[in-house]
Amino acid sequence: MLFPDDGNGSRILLTSRILELAGQSWKLLRERVFGQQYSCPPQLVEVGKKIAKDCGGLPLTIVVVAGLVLSSGNVMSEQVWGNISENISSREPTIALQCSKILCFSYDRLPLRLKPCFLYIAAFPEDSDIDVSKLIRLWVAEGFLKPNHHFKCLEDVGERYLEDLVERSLVLVSKKGPDGKLETVGIHDMLREICITKAEEEWFFHHHVRSKRYPYKEFIENPYRRLKIHIIERCSELNINDLSVRSILFDESLLSFPSLHVRSRHVCILDAPRAYSENISYVFSTFVNLWYFAFSLSSPPSSYRELPVLISKHPNLETVVVRVFLNYGIGRNILEVPYEILKAWKLRLLIWETSFRLTYPSDIGNIVYESGLQTIETVIDFIFEEEMIRILVNLKKLKVGYYMENRNWGDFNFDRLSKLLNLEDLEIRMYYNFSTDYSMTWKHVFPMGLKKLYLEVGKQRKVNFLNSSISIPMPRKLDYLLKWEMEKEHFPCLESLILDRAIWIDKFPSGVGEIDLLQYIELNECKISLVDSAKQIQRHQHENGNDAFRVRVIDYKGENVLF
Question: With contact defined as beta carbons under 8 Å apart, do 357 and 337 qualify?
Fold first, then answer.
């Protein structure tokens, strides 16, 4: 009666350190390893109950041990269970020490390929959701990932490594995308402490917390290859004097934007999204081995407009993430970037957190090289020239924005968009003045391999989209006219479909329900008729054997239901 079932999905887990509750511990361990539908073989019951008792009633240690058994590849082996039992036998004076020992044992049993990936997670702030894309980018830059016969793309290798850590219960899933892929993850506080301890013991990482010896300056001299800087108080200047450091990472939660001074010329990874340098050209000329560069540019540094040229001439850069702090209106400080930036032959990812515009030379028709770029964010008024299509042959993700005040829709050559054959993720945003009365029809073909499409239109009166519109969040009070037509051939690789406040759509086109790879539809604050249409698609998919197909509906109160 104290905890009624209100049907909202909440659960209460009662934990205890009373060893007499080992029976419940054994039930949890048994179900994690064998599942609820299968029983434990009789020859493993005794050793299994002993392991459960040695876990001290702490669910975390139980699920970690279960992950250890599962990762052995032979859950029926008495030798596997006996070896685990022998290594975690309770010889420690306190439950806390015993739990720590069990968790350390699980780390020691990790394959060599996963150990640095696991330790790297400690570089992220405590109790925070870790962005999976950033984590994998850093793994790539550190050289932890190697392609294999299953996965040629390093990002795919990173996703598989992370899933392996999740399956071993060493990493917690915080959020998944509609395609089922991990978006954010977390780590239990006890496991994070293990990470930090092991990283220090193995000279893998050093966590530096700001001291109070100097009121505004900080001096760091720890001889570690990787340095994580955590500063709670305000600091105006950071001096890193150690010559052996190769990777420098800052907490994104810094209260201030300190000026950074580094003595080492061998830095390969500089993840400093909340630090800046008054002389950006000095940074690039000093760090000649730089692979990963995430930095802040304040307004207006004298060398700000030199940055694209510096990037294009840098021999080793693979990832560039630039955050620009400007004090002017949106769209007024778009940086003009020469197309030569695409000549940085190792560059794979270019993210400009405000926006930039590529400038095209008069002789662009003579360009014959191919860029290795796989991700570009966010380029303004991008024109799909034939030459740019040939240059960006490896592009997988593209975010573009368009200010339509003085341009015609046909100026951007969207009819060539389908020629980006490797493009999987496309985001298009279009902006208009309130006073603009503009009507357009989207009738262009998307790349056949496109898996994710996000379209946003702002400040517009009438819109007509044909064969498009997968995820379209728009303000509720604007007056839009939308017509949506499509066939399954338009998006043969589509796996997930999200409509956010699409209150002008009554039902789905018939082609949506016929897409073979579609697994997920999400509707956020949409019409009841559209919900009914989604349920009809779900019934059709289930009748055809696609039992994994799901529909999620989020109503106006924020409550969500999964059908």
Answer: yes
**Residue that has been written with the tokens 């304040």 in this structure:** 298
> Going by DSSP bridges, is the β-strand pair 452-458/425-431 parallel, antiparallel, or unpaired?
parallel
Q: Identify the three-state secondary structure at position 405.
A: coil
Q: What distances in angstroms separate CA 146 from CA 79, 133, 159, one per listed residue?
A: 32, 17, 12
Taking residue 41's Cβ as centre, other Cβ atoms within 10 Å add up to 13
Would you call 22 helix, strand, or coil by DSSP? Answer: helix
How far is it, in rounded angstroms, from Cα 241 to Cα 471? Answer: 48
C-alpha span between 208 and 254 (Å, rounded):
13
Domain boundaries, the chain: 19-108, 115-193
CB neighbourhood size of 109 (10 A): 15
Number of other residues whose CB lies within 10 A of the CB of residue 40: 18
SS3 281: helix
> 214: closest CA among 232, 230, 237?
237
Residue pLDDT, tens place only, 322-362: 876 654 444 455 777 877 788 787 899 998 877 788 887 66
* The two structure tokens encoding residue 170: 């060493």
Q: How far is CA 227 from CA 138, 188, 212, 217, 240, in A?
A: 13, 22, 19, 17, 10
Q: Which of 6-20, 180-194, 311-325 has the lowest mean pLDDT?
A: 6-20
Cβ-contact 453, 471 below 8 angstroms: yes
β-pairing verdict for 496-500 and 292-297: unpaired
d(CA 466, CA 26): 57
> Above pLDDT 70, what percent of the chain?
73
- 115-193: which CATH topology? Arc Repressor Mutant, subunit A (1.10.10)
| 59-71 helix and 189-201 helix, angle to the nearest 10 degrees | 60
Tell me the one-letter amino acid at 351. Answer: I
What's the DSSP call for residue 544? T
Candidates 194, 33, 220; CA nearest to 103 is 194
User: Would you say the pTM of this structure is higher than 0.85?
Assistant: no
Which region, left, alpha or beta, applies to residue 112 given φ > 0 means left and ψ of -120 to 50 means alpha?
Answer: alpha
Q: Report pLDDT digits (tens) over 481-526.
A: 456 777 777 778 888 888 877 777 888 888 888 888 888 888 888 8
**Residue 440 backbone phi and psi in degrees, to 5:** -150, 165
Q: Is 212 exposed, middle or buried (0-12, 13-18, 19+ CB in 10 A)?
A: exposed
- Alpha helices, DSSP H, located in 74-222: 78-87, 95-108, 115-120, 132-142, 154-167, 189-201
Distance CA 110, CA 144 (A): 14
d(CA 295, CA 414): 32
